[in-house]
Amino acid sequence: MLTQDEALELYLVLWAMGMEDSWTELVHCGLITAPERPLIPVVRLNLLSHGNANAEADFRFDVHGVRRLAALFGLPETVITSSNDRCNSLEAVSILLYRLLYPRRLHDMSIKFGRSTSSLCRIFLCMVDYVDDRYKDKQFFDTELAERRMAQYCAAISARTHVEGVFAFPDGTKVPICRPKSMRDGINLQRSVYSGHKRVHCLVFQGLTTPDGLCMHFYGPYEGRRHDTTVFAASGLLRHFERHSSVFEGRTIFGDPA
């Protein structure tokens, strides 16, 4: 049995001699073992053939909703990644939504979309970068939406708590990560991202939730050792409220101190 390096050298010799077909014969003889790879079915997603029930289960949107998202995102007809993976805009949005519907493995997605896991990963990351760049201001805080619904939010909370002026609830979440290398450029990364409270290595994200279930604000990631109040101060959310005092004057948010 040849080692991997020996097999590579042999293939280069055969290729130089114009005898590439001999490689297959060596594999059949058992001198070289070809790694078995997962099969990728020859299919392509046809969103229009999806029923609304299946679409909502797969993407959390019906067929019309996925098509509307693709239009609102302003995507070109063909999405091309930096590695030249190509797909139409509907498939790109479908891959994004399907992957975000936890839990989804890339291998499971390859069976549904008929693409390799590496291609699916690149398309997904391309879409994440695109959406993040296009809507980064709204991700920090959607002030226009808050202004339109402020009275509704305050009324909904007041009806259940008899507290006036509260419109949203801030909270932090810690997302576990793999343990990093202990030292890098003189910085103890393990200590920076370790949460003594949760006893895991993690990153901290901050969100602001309104009574209708929307996340009005996102901030992060921050190192896991930081307390939620530290992340809140660093986010500059209060400064944002001060800059838009016409919207947030007399309004408050309510969060637990933990």
TrEMBL record:
This is DDE Tnp4 domain-containing protein. The keyword Nuclease does not apply. The keyword Metal-binding applies. Keywords: Metal-binding. Residues 171-257 form the DDE Tnp4 domain. Its cofactor is a divalent metal cation. It comes from Phytophthora rubi. Signal peptide: none annotated. GO terms for molecular function: metal ion binding. It holds the Pfam family DDE_Tnp_4. InterPro entries: HARBI1_dom.
